[in-house]
Fold:
Amino acid sequence: MPEGPEVRRAAVLLDDALAGKPIVSLSTRLKKTLAWLDANGNPFPGRTVERVWSHGKWLVGDVEGGLHFASHFLMWGRWQVVAPDDELAVTRDRRERARIEVPDAVAVLLTAPKFRLLDGSPYAEGGPVAHLGPDALPYDGPEAFDVDAWHDRLLSGAHHERTVGAVLLDQTVVAGIGNYLRAEILHACRLDPWTLVGDLTDRDLACLNREIPRITAYAFAHGGRTIPPEQVERMRGNSALHYGEAREHNLRHWVFRRTNLPCLVCGDTVRQKKQVTRRYEDAEGNLEEKKRPIYFCPTCQNTTVDLPPVRKKKRTPSRRASADA
Ligand SMILES: [Zn+2]
Structure:
């Protein structure tokens, strides 16, 4: 599932392909966006794409004259850039949700359910990025992470009774962190995912201030990998440290999707457990909970949650063994 680093790579891909070029055509299959085009008479053709960038998990394109396009991948979406004579450009894939054509390239948005068009700032009220917390992946590098803005939101009081594991996924507090980054950040800070925000110490906050932008930037620079090369080599040389064959996708993280394997730091067994990430009332007033699996090392992170006994790693693990529960 794309998180901040993956969305930023898509933004770089589109910026390289589109920026400085006039839009030949822009189209979509999403009903709401079609309605916008109907109401606004599609003002995009003939205007130049100025820049494509991202904030958190939103990708935004600035277009001459104060126009913008914006996409959100949710679970499976992606942008693909091809030549105008490529099969994807010529035949319209059924997964296509939107496309932007410039003279020498076609950018096609596949499966993503969100593609918005707007006239005016994307940060204005109602804009796609208006509600977001500071970006975990600042364009000017990890040291440019807006710690004040993150603390203002985190420590406002509204989140004191929430767990740190839940609040790291809250895009209004800090933007761009998803399930793999939160597990890796909490492990790096030796933090129990069930620690309440109101109980975070100065040491915890100092670590999060540092590790949120550092790990996100590292993942962006290394194709989503969060461990250094020496740990990749260590895993590659020891089949007990990874699932399946020693392939790139199995040798990426400290704890994420390493359930029942040894922690790379202390050797204890990495565990996973579903964690409540959001509580809300449904239409009938019933309290609903949204849960996501969190991966962690009980020893490094000093957790106190109840856990079932460890299941031994299978010799030939099934695909399910390493998949999200
Ligand atoms: Zn450990």
